[in-house]
Amino acid sequence: DAKTTQPPSMDCAEGRAANLPCNHSTISGNEYVYWYRQIHSQGPQYIIHGLKNNETNEMASLIITEDRKSSTLILPHATLRDTAVYYCIVARPDQTGANNLFFGTGTRLTVIP
Amino acid sequence: DGGITQSPKYLFRKEGQNVTLSCEQNLNHDAMYWYRQDPGQGLRLIYYSQIVNDFQKGDIAEGYSVSREKKESFPLTVTSAQKNPTAFYLCASSEGPYNEQFFGPGTRLTVL
Hints:
The structure holds two protein chains of two kinds. Chain A has strands spanning about 10-15, 20-25, 35-40, 45-50, 55, 60-65, 70-75, 85-95, 100, 105-110. Chain A is mostly beta strands. In chain A, a hairpin with a 4-residue loop joins β5 and β6 (about 60-65). Chain A starts with 8 loop residues before the first strand and ends with a strand. Chain B contains no helices and eleven strands. In chain B, strands 2, 4, 5, 6, 9, 10 and 11 form a seven-stranded mixed beta sheet that branches. Chain B starts with a strand and ends with a strand. The mean pLDDT of chain B is about 90. The interface between A and B is medium-sized, with 24 and 30 residues.
């Protein structure tokens, strides 16, 4: 299974862009990159996902390098409500094709006023 | 409103008792999942189900059991065989493979 590596913690000033990196150097061709976040004691919230092209939605942008070995989640204007643990996950299809997400320890983002 | 519900939010049980955690979704999703989260840790997959009447073990299935008799329901039973049952349990569902998973609010189980 492809594993991901993320910094354990990051700080970002309120109103600035938060850039969260993720390394997934062993990702295989049919694996997607997903980002979730989890605010304390709540269920994870889906943010965005992609295969090889950059993606953007109302929450964030996802930049995937051309070799797909790393990606960056960008929150363009961080607010205090964006303080959470952010998980970078590589989707692994098993023999039946189920989408099993393997959550690591993530990056704890703290947005500072 | 569409979504995933888990009940109860907090659950206390005595050691040696089986306990069943509820998970219901009205999103018409085919796939459902159960995860466990321990303090400061990421999520680990317990069981998942791609379709009604079918389910598969995840990474840490020992001491747990599930059923999928209805599309909208995927209850998890924590049996007395589970050595460290105290944890935060999260249920999720997705439309199908490679679709994003939507999570419920979680159940915090404490075994005394």
